[in-house]
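Intended use. Records such as the peptidoglycan glycosyltransferase entry shown here are meant for training and evaluating sequence-to-structure methods. They are not intended to support clinical decisions.
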Amino acid sequence: MWKSRVVKTLIGIGLIGFALDFFFPVPTNVPYSTLIAARDGSILHAFLSRDDKWRMYAELDEITPTLRDAILFKEDKYFRYHLGFNPVAMLRATFRNLLKGRRTSGASTITMQTVRLLEPRERTYGSKFIELLRAIQLELHYSKDEILQLYLNLIPYGSNIEGLKSASLLYFGKPPVLLSLAEITTLTIIPNRPSSLRLGERNALVVQERNRWLTRFRTANLFNETTITDAIDEPLTVRRRAAPQLAPHLSRRLRASFPGEPVIHATLRPAVQATAERIVQNYANRIRALGVHNAAVLVVDNQTQEVVSYVGSANFNDVYDGGQVDGVRAVRSPGSALKPLLYGLAFDAGFITPKTKLADVPTNFAGYEPDNYDRRFNGPVTAEFALGNSLNLPAVALLHEIGVTPFIATLRRASFSTIKKQAKGLGLSMILGGCGVTLEEMTRLYVGFANNGEVKPLQFRMAVDATLSPKKQTGVPILSPAAAYLVTYTLTQITRPDLPNNFDNSYHLPRIAWKTGTSYGRRDAWSIGYNQRYTIGVWVGNFSGAGVAELSGANTATPLLFQLFNALDDNSSNGWFRNPKGSAALQLSSRLICPETGDIPGEFCPNPVTDYFIMGVSRYRRCQHRKAVFTNAAGTISYCAHCRPDSGSVRRSYPNLAPEVAAFYQSSHVPFERIPPHNPVCERIFGGSEGPLITSLNEGSEYFINPKQPAEMELGCQAANDVQEVYWYLNDKLYRKALPTQTVFFRPRPGRLKISCADDKGRHSDMHVVVKNE
């Protein structure tokens, strides 16, 4: 009967214990200081805990055998063998306390001390009993190593410093794994007397106490004689140090992204970060006289997508121009820095190859008339020249051909978040900087160029799971490998206007592919470059948005880019980009083309050159830069097939210029061969081809006039090379005959207006506008 009662009693006690353990767990959720560690484990930045303590989390692998042996010998020799309390030590302490009539020994184990640090109580026997129960509870839930780790993270060192790791970093300037035996012993004795053994103030007393314990270690043969002797002789030159404060912008970003994590392992490389910070700060100091106060830099490892340096501003503590603003994530105008993506898409669409001729001439895109940076026009230029020289008109024309919507879709796939929000209001001007981007987004895009056109998320934190490794993450292909190579091939050219002054023929010029950008109003200067190893994004400007006349991507941002590459990857041994070997249908190859157009040589192409093309994608069309025309012997009259005489005609070739190019040549007084006037006796009416391009006014627009003082409105067109005269019609009534390049004015009336322009070949074009009174 009594056995049954004993069993029931034990079961009851067990159930009560289980319930108490479930409803009253040990509060081990300690608010630690957030530590940002570099790739090599060194601490970049430390933040105070929520309760304003320096309570840094020491990981298990930071508890070295020397540290473990020293602390266990001093505090709890039987730590590995008891279940939270040492009954022998408790009986001995009780006997001594009763004998002396006062408390002389507490007999607390490391587990019990940990409980007391987690739940501070008055030093009474009742508190000691509760600590004993809590110690057992702690032992049931955690391993011995975890309990020791928790203890070392909580022991006090005076002031607001708690934990051995905090003391190690703030007093010795190193992590626990690098502490010597003398330093370890110093840190093991401080928690027992933190008020009297003050490091940096009473170092002589600390050394005396330290050596006393080192002598005990020698007596117990805990460490070898040489180690003990060296530790006793080691001087103590310790002082309170400031907490690490490197990479402040990324550190704050990571702490906000991963709240509650005591240690966040960033991908930064300390040497690269320190070098970048030093170069950026020195460079910002040099350009401050120009009125430019800030810069931001992002350095990415192309193989892993890891951010190895993150400089949000030139000086985090600069209050004059917002040093705490994170320039890596600030939304700015990209200027021309998006053009490489546009050309890459045009390569993939088959619209162009590097030597395709594009027209850099004044053009009206439904009311939008962009200009070049230098306000000059170059006429027909190759695509590689247009991109290398960052010409605006060819870029806008390409975007018009590709379409704004597909271009925005590509940027959205590449995770351009601001452009995603602005999508409905964006137009052709976005390729010249009329949109919002961040340095992070732009650098990630160029990392994609360096990785065969595949964009992957940038890595700011070390992967905690092997399945999340950057190499195993699926990227977003925005360009084919062939198109990405053509972009790199073009951006590697050094004969270009965005080469900084004094860098031409200089050994300081690194081998990189790069592109610059300057926003409207000279508020932002960009330069982003890459080689096989790194992609570096640079932004220079003022966070206030103030423009500076001297600010430009070429002369303000690119010198900083070159300095960074020369410092971080000088004489790189990683080689250079090679022609990608893709599938046969998308393989990059070369072919002969006519240098006048970039098309396949035709009848009038005697000097072909070699150009890249994407097999199965790039356009295949015969060159028509000149066309055959039958004229009389004197070359003063041209014939069509219906009026050419049976004899006496001569077959000649003439330039087959696009209307806008012909108009540009005429306005710029550039001489070119014109097709002679058509046979005046021919009555054949030409048709079927496009008429003159009306450049002013704009189709579908509304124009407001002052009825009391109506202003004249301008008419203009671009006609083909063979056109001598054009005819303007207003609401199908002939208004005036004029030369193709002549500007015509008229006084409008309110209402719907149909404008027509016909050339002397019978070809015509129409547009409709609405005129209203103000």
